[in-house]
């Protein structure tokens, strides 16, 4: 960077005062200040953009490294699971005495042929509800006529004959 000391700045100010004049010097100084501020902001923006791009590249490198590590771990876990699965199937075949282990897990566990899914009986479910719950929730337990229901819910004190 350019190194300006106090003596150099004073010399530039004196020359500017003589060349520009005392009337226009404040306006020119203000304009120069604005231009220098814009230049500093532009330089700061460029620095920030460069830093962001460097950080982005570092993050991409870190991401690829993590993905490689995850793939390696996944492969080792799969290999271990496969070896454990083969060992289990072999010991299972030896324990059950079956000659081949190609049958898999589902062939040994079958549902009995006599099993039937329970039927959905609405009345049975309705009857299994306790009376105290029906009373608390206002479930009808007896058949009522329309007039009886109106009379039941009529506000007290009003009777019509």
TrEMBL record:
<feature type="region of interest" description="Disordered">
    <location>
        <begin position="92"/>
        <end position="161"/>
    </location>
</feature>
<dbReference type="Pfam" id="PF02416">
    <property type="entry name" value="TatA_B_E"/>
</dbReference>
<comment type="similarity">
    <text>Belongs to the TatB family.</text>
</comment>
<dbReference type="InterPro" id="IPR018448">
    <property type="entry name" value="TatB"/>
</dbReference>
<comment type="subunit">
    <text>The Tat system comprises two distinct complexes: a TatABC complex, containing multiple copies of TatA, TatB and TatC subunits, and a separate TatA complex, containing only TatA subunits. Substrates initially bind to the TatABC complex, which probably triggers association of the separate TatA complex to form the active translocon.</text>
</comment>
<keyword id="KW-0997">Cell inner membrane</keyword>
<keyword id="KW-0812">Transmembrane</keyword>
<keyword id="KW-0811">Translocation</keyword>
<feature type="compositionally biased region" description="Basic residues">
    <location>
        <begin position="151"/>
        <end position="161"/>
    </location>
</feature>
<feature type="compositionally biased region" description="Polar residues">
    <location>
        <begin position="97"/>
        <end position="114"/>
    </location>
</feature>
<keyword id="KW-0813">Transport</keyword>
<comment type="function">
    <text>Part of the twin-arginine translocation (Tat) system that transports large folded proteins containing a characteristic twin-arginine motif in their signal peptide across membranes. Together with TatC, TatB is part of a receptor directly interacting with Tat signal peptides. TatB may form an oligomeric binding site that transiently accommodates folded Tat precursor proteins before their translocation.</text>
</comment>
<dbReference type="InterPro" id="IPR003369">
    <property type="entry name" value="TatA/B/E"/>
</dbReference>
<keyword id="KW-1133">Transmembrane helix</keyword>
<keyword id="KW-0653">Protein transport</keyword>
<protein>
    <recommendedName>
        <fullName>Sec-independent protein translocase protein TatB</fullName>
    </recommendedName>
</protein>
<keyword id="KW-1003">Cell membrane</keyword>
<keyword id="KW-0472">Membrane</keyword>
């Amino acid at each position: 960077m350019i190194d300006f000391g106090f003596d150099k700045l004073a010399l530039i100010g004196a020359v500017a005062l003589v060349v520009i004049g005392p009337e226009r010097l404040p306006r020119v100084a203000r304009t120069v200040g604005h231009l220098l501020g814009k230049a500093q902001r532009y330089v700061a923006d460029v620095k920030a953009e460069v830093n962001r791009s460097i950080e982005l590249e570092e993050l991409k490198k870190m991401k690829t490294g993590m993905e490689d590590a995850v793939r390696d771990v996944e492969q080792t876990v799969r290999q271990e699971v496969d070896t454990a699965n083969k060992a289990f199937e072999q010991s299972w075949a030896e324990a059950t005495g079956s000659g081949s282990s190609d049958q898999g897990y589902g062939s040994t566990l079958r549902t009995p042929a006599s099993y039937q899914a329970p039927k959905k009986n609405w009345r049975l479910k309705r009857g299994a509800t306790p009376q105290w719950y029906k009373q608390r929730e206002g479930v009808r337990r007896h058949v009522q006529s329309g007039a009886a229901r109106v009379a039941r819910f009529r506000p007290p004190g009003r009777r019509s004959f």
